[in-house]
Design a protein that fits this description.
Layout (H helix, E strand, L loop, with lengths): L11 H11 L8 H14 L3 E5 L2 H11 L7 E5 L4 H9 L3 E5 L10 H4 L7 E4 L11 H11 L2 E5 L19 E5 L12 E5 L2 H10 L8 H6 L19 H12 L1 H19 L19 E4 L5 H10 L15 H7 L7 H9 E4 L7 H14 L2
Parallel strand pairs: 2-3, 2-4, 4-5, 5-6
Antiparallel strand pairs: 1-7, 6-7, 8-9
Helix pairs in contact: 1-9, 2-9, 3-4
The structure holds pyridoxal-5'-phosphate.
């Protein structure tokens, strides 16, 4: 048997939606993007959502719109995809890494305060694998220190904590529709906010800072010039990509429920295993990645064996503070972030998507149990 690590759910509905856009005049950001944005904002219960080209763009856009300046420090978890910190650098800021809490792998809120300096302007919590961070505590911390709170919610759309979804307490929350995320258009992202003025500013800034985008200019009878009043970036989502996402937003809860069932099966199978560790969610998880934690010295061997035996698996992620660029630029070294490093050297991500069959899930479980003894 060969179980793919990931399979998308794009089908005839999405193909027709994209074809409809291709037969229309407006390929770039327009009515279809706006429809996706309405539906996505409605699902999360936030004031507005903006389609962009990636979560990395979403984070950069939010930070720029919030006024991050060169030299400003932004706190990020040491255990995340490099994109979180990269976006901070592109926005002009300096990422400051904070170690993880062992139970969830999320940023350790107890350790944040001692990393706050006079230059700190924002915190970017990452909802690891779909488990939301304690946003109430983070909001309180940010209010106390007058910091912006921007969520990297690339792993989570459906999750809740204290009855709240992503976007509820932060200044902005950022989502990814990259090829292997829970909903996807190949490459894409969104940023949501409950602040109308910030939404307006980000709308302008996502398209070069132009006061009116192409669809708006096309819709007006009289020719008009646009102004550039602020420095923007180029990250607006096209109608083509948005067309793929609308149906997937409508299916979010249905497909989440299937992933939840698969995760519960995995958890039941691995929970008692002496050599497999799990990060059990503390509240409704977005269920993006199902990870097992294994002996670090054997991890890469296990990954290769699982792949040889037909179980697609990947590593999310090698500890980013040990990448060459990060060491050279920020002087990080082994041992600086012990919990994040241990996670990064132990974690293996298993297949998790709604079209996994019962036979495939059973095969993954059996192969993992046969491989890790
Ligand atoms: C995938 C991912 C990103 C980057 O998303 P893109 O849409 O590819 O830019 C950022 N942060 C985390 C935690 C991710 O998993």
């Amino acid at each position: 048997m060969q179980v793919e690590f990931y399979k998308h759910n794009l089908g005839d509905t999405e193909i027709k939606a994209v074809a409809d856009v291709m037969r229309s005049v407006m390929l770039t950001t327009g009515a279809v993007t706006a429809e996706f944005e309405r539906k996505f904002a409605e699902y999360l219960g936030v004031h507005s959502a903006l389609g962009v080209m990636s979560a990395t763009h979403a984070i950069e856009l939010a930070l720029r719109a919030l006024g991050i300046q060169p030299g400003d420090e932004v706190i990020v978890p040491a255990f995340t995809m490099w994109a979180t910190a990269e976006a901070v650098i592109h926005a002009g800021g300096k990422p400051v890494f904070v170690d993880s809490e062992p139970e969830t792998g999320n940023i350790n809120i107890d350790l944040i305060e001692k990393s706050i300096t006079a230059r700190t302007k924002a915190i970017i919590p990452v909802h690891l694998y779909g488990q939301l961070c304690d946003m109430q505590r983070l909001r309180e911390l940010c209010d106390r220190h007058r910091l912006w709170l921007v969520e990297d919610s690339a792993h989570n759309i459906e999750g809740e904590r204290d009855g709240l979804k992503a976007g509820a307490l932060s200044d902005a929350a950022c989502f990814s529709f990259y090829a292997t995320k829970n909903i996807t258009c190949g490459e894409g992202g969104a940023v949501v906010t409950n602040q109308p003025q910030l939404a307006e500013l980000m709308t302008v800034m996502r398209t070069h800072g132009m006061s009116a985008d192409a669809a708006n200019r096309y819709a007006s009878d009289k020719f008009r010039h646009y102004d550039i009043a602020v420095l923007g970036i180029k990250a607006n989502m096209s109608n083509i990509l948005a067309a793929m996402l609308i149906n997937q937003v409508e299916k979010l809860d249905e497909r989440w429920a299937i992933r939840e069932r698969i995760c519960q099966k995995y958890e039941a199978a691995f929970q008692q295993h002496p050599r497999i560790g799990l990060l059990i969610p503390k509240s409704k998880s977005g269920r993006h990645i199902f990870a097992i934690l294994v002996e670090p010295s054997l991890r890469d061997e296990y990954v290769n064996l699982l792949r040889e035996r037909g179980v697609g698996c990947v590593v999310n992620w090698y500890p980013m503070t040990l990448f060459t660029y990060v060491r050279k630029t920020f002087g990080t070294k082994p041992g600086d972030f012990p919990v994040a490093e241990k996670l990064g050297f132990s974690t293996i991500s298993l297949p998790l998507y709604p079209s996994l069959t019962d036979e495939e899930v059973d095969y993954v479980i059996k192969t993992v149990l046969d491989t890790i003894r």
